[in-house]
Amino acid sequence: MQAALDKQNKVLTGDFNDSSQRLDDLHQVRFLCKKLTFVKLFYVVFALKALSEADNNKKKLSIEKGDLEKQIEEAENQLR
Q1: What's the per-residue H, E or C state across 30-58?
Q2: What is the rounded average pLDDT of the residues 46-66?
């Protein structure tokens, strides 16, 4: 009877250790997923800022283009 209990105790201890190790692994995976999510979020914010800056530059260049076209048209009218 004692031998059977000792054997069962060893099996349960092994199962407990395995479960504990798996839980530690899952905590590590969870931590890495959170870290990866943060990194992805950082890149998304960075990309959005870059797109916003590009859009602002496009608007500025469009206005500048209009001004230059107007100056060219005025210069051509003066030459006629």
Answers
A1: HHHHHHHHHHHHHHHHHHHHHHHHHHHHH
A2: 97
Residues 70-80 as b/e (b if ≥16 CB within 10 A, e otherwise) read eeeeeeeeeee
Amino acid in the structure at residue 6: D
For 63-72, write each residue's pLDDT tens digit. Answer: 999 999 999 9
The two most distant CA atoms of the chain are separated, in Å, by: 117
Residue 6 in this model has a pLDDT that exceeds 90: no
For 31, the token pair is 């931590």
Average pLDDT of every residue of the chain: 93
- Tokens of residue 16, six digits: 């407990």
| Burial label, 69 (beta-carbon count in 10 A; 0-12, 13-18, 19+) | exposed
From CA 8, how far away is CA 11, in angstroms rounded? 5
